[in-house]
Amino acid sequence: MAQVNPSMETKSASFTIRQAALWAAVLLCFAAGLAVRLYDLTDLPLDFHPTRQLHSALMARGMYYQDLESAPQWQREMAVRQWKMEGVIEPPFMEWLAARAYQMAGEELLWLPRLFSIFFWMAGGVGLLLWTRKVGSLEGAIAALAFYLVLPYGVIASRAFQPDPLMTALVVWSLWAVSRWSAHPSWGNSLLAGVLGGTAILSKSVAVFFIAPAFTVVVLSTLGLKNALRSGRVWVMAFLALLPYALYHFYGIYVAGFLQSQFSQRFFPAMWFDPAFYLQWSRKINQVTGVHWFLLGILGSFLYRERRVSTMLFSLWVGYFLYGIALPHHISTHDYYHLPLIPLVALGLAGGVPLVRDHLQVSTWRRNALLWSLFIFGVGYYAWDARTILKRVDYRPEAQYWQEIGAFLGRDSNVVALTQDYGARLAYWGWAMAINWPWLGDLSFQGQPTMADDLIARFEQEAAGRDYFLVTVPEELERQPALKDLLASYTIVFREGDAVIYDLRLPIQ
What we know:
The structure is a single chain. By secondary structure, this protein is mostly helical. Helices cover 68% and strands 5% of the residues.
């Protein structure tokens, strides 16, 4: 009978325990990431860029109401009108999904779209795990997954009703697919990478800044320039990656025309020479990932054993830099434009973990104890921090607040409004339409005059023939004293919290 080496049994048992512990860590990451995202699920979508979320909410409600025969005729017409007034930028995938969900469960469940965003982000975590596990160590993959799933900014942003969580997840899966193609450049993998890359770019066009550099570098490092140009698989992959958005762009610009206005006020090359631009950019990075994690992510990108992986990650960092240069205003003012930075930093962290693990000058059990303690503390700390942010403010009372304002104004009134989110809250919960009075920051950004005489002339133009002037942001009114003085000459007919309604038909004698 063959003898079993006791040392081999011990080593095998210890390997099994280690593997089980690591996969338990994976489950902990997913459980913590999902649990904290489901916390306070039913709160109103005002916790993260409400203007952008309500843009999608108004579109989804219009899609739902257009076939809702049980709704009053005026409500159907207004919902569709509000939908059509919202500018279309990306294909409304998320809005369409929300409208279909409303058909099954009801539009009053405004939190349903959050579930789609959460699902897509969590699915992106699966793609991140598969890729980092393949190109690096399981420990590194777990570190990347933990960062991706419990980073507080990522938790809040990945619940938002907007296309960015879907786009980010699709970018991750596209990178996994092209990496898979690199190992086995078959027709099947070419089709898979092309379809995923094309879907990512179609979901939001800025994904091209990550897809194009990564695909290009992977193809060239795998086949070389001459063979790549001769490869039908490469051409099919590129065709599938670019065709969907090319067709959408052509239709939106030259056929339907709804995209023509979306490319204005996006490209500001003068900002490249302003040091304040780079300072604002760095502040957004700090807001999203933290500058320390950002720098560690860059460093870790060059610590993978395979040069091909580091080269691919370097191309992603170049793509991110070009992204900011191409859209300087948005990259320095819109923090959610940095959302793809989260998986990018996570990938860099995964590359550095094995190096840290192997160079800890302590015994094995102490090293494991230290790393496990840091992991559990980090996941718990960041998850609790995200939960605290979600708990901080309850936005539910806002629905009734805006309903009362809308009920007073009535659906047939002509209203000018100095209010939040360009009137989106009033439109959604108040079922009232208004002409938006601009904030000073908007006037300055658009290069419009802001002197007192200019505001008076604007008021005479905007208020002519209107019934009411609504103010719900008193601090902004204070910044426009000329407007405040003009409104003081009209009768206040409604006051609730910060909301004040002036009757433009009743001047004070």
